[in-house]
Specification:
seven-stranded antiparallel sheet; about 220 residues; Carbon monoxide dehydrogenase; 8 helices; Alpha-D-Glucose-1,6-Bisphosphate, Chain A, domain 4; alpha+beta; 7 strands; START-like_dom_sf; CO_DH_gsu; single chain; about 35% strand; plasmid
Length: about 220
């Protein structure tokens, strides 16, 4: 199955949206049905242990770029989460593991899989950010997914509206959080400050670049 589309976020910048989409905490908060999303060492995950770890963490949404830099998605790394999805009469909770295959502003690409009892999926997903003429950002996204088991038996006429609803609610959540946290102010370094180099290093990490590349 292929799902794709474009979602426009108003009154924001590519840098601001990239900062938001770098934060696993913000992603988990915006994604409908997501209980947690945590960095893991590989795709071999003990979800019972991970759930305990998640319950002990107290990370909060923030607009502070240094905090986000410490926990931001990293290319080549694995992330795992529990995500409940309502599909027709069933509400499976998928144990999901994804790998960040590419993270280079303005593009991000991930692949992974999820399982839930008698249903499972494999997916490959990417997005690219573009400025719009009216001072916003367009997020072009595309997902290739193979669905198996009970959920697959419901067919695309049931699955497609569910996928579109999840995406719409996700980006609406991102938009709301951007407004609340004013991330565009947080990720802009002041060139007059003595610690300009340190600030730029933080922002460069969030933009997916190394200090060497930005020098």
């Amino acid at each position: 199955m292929n799902f794709n589309g474009t979602f426009e976020l108003e009154d924001t910048t590519v840098e601001e949206v990239w900062l938001a989409l770098s934060d696993p905490v913000l992603i988990a908060d915006s994604l409908p049905g997501c209980e947690f999303l945590l960095h893991v060492e590989s795709d071999d995950v003990d979800f019972e242990e991970l759930s305990e770890r998640a319950s002990e963490r107290e990370e909060e949404l923030t607009g502070d770029p240094e905090t986000i830099a410490e926990r931001a998605f990293r290319e080549g790394e694995w992330y795992a989460g529990l995500v409940q999805v309502s599909v027709g009469p069933v509400n499976p909770t998928f144990e999901t593991v994804v790998r960040i295959d590419e993270r280079d502003q303005p593009r991000m690409h991930a692949s992974g899989e999820g399982t839930s009892g008698d249903s499972s999926f494999e997916m490959s997903s990417g997005m690219e950010l573009h400025e719009t003429d009216d001072g916003g950002v367009a997020v072009e996204w595309e997902t290739e997914a193979d669905v198996f088991g009970k959920v697959a038996g419901m067919g695309q006429r049931v699955i497609n509206p569910v996928a579109n609803r999840i995406v719409k609610r996700f980006f609406s959540g991102v938009q709301s959080t951007l407004r609340d946290l004013q991330l565009s102010d947080a990720d802009t370094p002041d060139p007059d400050e003595d610690d300009e180099g340190e600030d730029r290093g933080i922002v460069d990490r969030l933009l997916g670049r190394s200090s060497a590349d930005s020098s």
